[in-house]
């Protein structure tokens, strides 16, 4: 199909990027399980290697199944291009790689997926990069944290683990004024609930492991480029604006314009870092995306029911769901993610750490796993698992205090989820 901008989300989630296979007419996107592609002749090969012609060389860089997924996610996010890679964490490194060099930093929200806090506070130091964490509800603190060496601002749209909503237009304005890109991790919201590019994001990253695939089968990641950032406006982004020594002096921004970041991600990022998504994973994720809107609607509907029930229960201290009227983020839902606040939130159990452990052990439908965005309901006690590497202050700042559990509400019958929680809360109170 032609990806006309007039098509609705439900149509695009099934059709964008895909067309019947030109060789066989296969209606479903085939899994192109191949490592290499035959060149037409030596000239064709040379043109491909020089990036003068776009085509398939080797599946570390590009693969037709993965390419369909890239186009589909880029379309759903309203970006100009996307690069898929092996996991959400790979996507974060791939997003930062063209922007950073030793001595440069990013300014990141304190409210992030626990693994991201660890990646940014510990692992990226090995590259000579660093991160400054600030409360993104405090715009002055965000401004103050940006210095001459800052190369990006990073946050989640619906932020882990509490399901808080970030004021994306306000943060985008701060990044804009500083002449640096805003990177938004849109994993927990998905483009069905939130389209960060419309709120000013430069790049959107995803763990496709979560809602996009939707059933807990494969890991994957994606970086979507808005195509809107002027990489040549300052000397801050030489990998994109200056001659690239690893590509015979090619200037990515001058040559590829709005697609500079996407081409760099494939030609340098995937070529040299090798964090490639395999075609099987792309297939599972394409299957998942076909029903994204239907699942997200049910995730939201169930999350509202469960959160309301928990909030009214006196064994529960508080519930952080932004879809509750009591949430300080309730008003932001209407502008940032008008179709709902997602399926992720935390609640505090009276009885603290021990009660949380008992609750998690007593649940039957909810699985105790380090994952989110599955069709099935999931729960985790963050303080003893995903956020274990963090200091108690970092845990509290991240919304993962010891008395708190995080739930990812699935698409089962809401009444069954409530009954399961009711029984487990009784066990936790014993
Ligand atoms: C899971 C997750 C990640 C990391 O993704 P992986 O696919 O597990 O590497 C990053 N950000 C968010 C919000 C996540 O939920």
Structure explained in plain terms:
The structure is a single chain. This protein is an alpha/beta fold. It has two domains: 9-288, 3-Layer(aba) Sandwich (Aspartate Aminotransferase, domain 2), CATH 3.40.640; 292-429, Aspartate Aminotransferase, domain 1, CATH 3.90.1150.10. Helix content is 37%, strand content 14%. It contains 17 helices and 14 strands. The chain has helices at 9-15, 42-49, 64-77, 88-96, 114-121, 139-145, 168-177, 190-193, 238-241, 252-256, 260-273, 279-289, 292-311, 330-336, 352-362, 392-397, 414-429, and strands at 81-85, 105-109, 130-134, 150-156, 158-159, 164-165, 182-185, 203-207, 221-225, 316-319, 344-349, 367-368, 378-380, 404-408. The strands form three sheets. It has a seven-stranded mixed beta sheet, with helices on both faces. Strands 10-11-14-13-12 form a five-stranded mixed beta sheet. Strands 5-6 form a two-stranded antiparallel sheet. α8 (190-193) links the parallel β7 (182-185) and β8. α15 (352-362) crosses α17 (414-429). The termini are far apart. The relative contact order is 0.13. The mean pLDDT is 95.
Keywords:
430 residues, alpha/beta, Aspartate Aminotransferase, domain 2, Aspartate Aminotransferase, domain 1, 2 domains, 7-stranded mixed sheet, 5-stranded mixed sheet, 17 helices, binds pyridoxal-5'-phosphate
């Amino acid at each position: 199909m032609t990806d006309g901008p007039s098509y609705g989300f439900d149509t695009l989630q099934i059709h964008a990027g895909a067309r019947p296979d030109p060789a066989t007419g296969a209606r479903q996107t085939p899994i192109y399980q191949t490592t290499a592609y035959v060149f037409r002749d030596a000239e064709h090969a040379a043109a491909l290697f020089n990036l003068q012609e776009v085509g398939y060389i080797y599946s570390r860089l590009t693969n037709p199944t993965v390419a369909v997924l890239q186009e589909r996610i880029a379309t759903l996010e309203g970006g100009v291009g996307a690069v898929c890679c092996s996991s959400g964490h790979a996507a974060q490194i791939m997003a930062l790689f063209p922007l950073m060099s030793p001595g440069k930093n990013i300014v990141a929200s304190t409210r992030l997926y626990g693994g991201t806090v660890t990646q940014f506070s510990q692992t990226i130091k090995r590259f000579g990069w660093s991160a400054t964490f600030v409360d993104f509800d405090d715009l002055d603190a965000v401004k103050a944290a940006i210095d001459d060496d800052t190369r990006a601002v990073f946050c989640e749209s619906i932020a882990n683990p509490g399901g808080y909503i970030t004021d994306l237009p306000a943060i985008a304005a701060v990044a804009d004024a500083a002449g640096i890109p805003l990177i938004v991790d849109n994993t927990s919201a998905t483009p069905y609930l939130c389209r960060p590019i419309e709120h000013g994001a430069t790049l959107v990253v995803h763990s496709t492991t979560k809602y996009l695939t939707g059933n807990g089968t494969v890991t994957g990641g994606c970086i979507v480029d808005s195509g809107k950032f002027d990489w040549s406006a300052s000397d801050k982004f030489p990998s994109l604006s200056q001659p690239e020594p690893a590509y015979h002096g090619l200037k990515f921004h001058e040559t590829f314009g709005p697609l500079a970041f996407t081409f760099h991600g494939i030609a340098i990022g995937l070529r040299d870092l090798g964090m490639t998504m395999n075609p099987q994973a792309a297939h599972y994720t394409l299957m998942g995306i076909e029903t994204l809107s239907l699942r997200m609607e049910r995730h939201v509907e169930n999350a509202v029911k469960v959160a309301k029930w928990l909030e009214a229960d006196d064994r529960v201290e508080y519930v952080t769901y932004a879809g509750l009227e009591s949430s300080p983020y309730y008003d932001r839902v209407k502008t940032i993610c008008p179709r709902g606040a997602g399926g992720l939130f935390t609640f505090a159990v009276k009885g603290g750490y021990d009660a949380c452990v008992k609750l998690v052990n007593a649940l039957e439908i909810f699985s105790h796993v380090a994952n989110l965005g599955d069709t099935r309901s999931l729960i985790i006690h963050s303080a003893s698992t995903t956020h274990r590497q963090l200091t108690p202050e970092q845990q509290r700042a991240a919304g993962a205090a010891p008395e708190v559990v995080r739930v990812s509400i699935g698409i089962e019958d809401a009444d069954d989820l409530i009954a399961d929680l009711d029984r487990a809360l009784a066990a936790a109170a014993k």
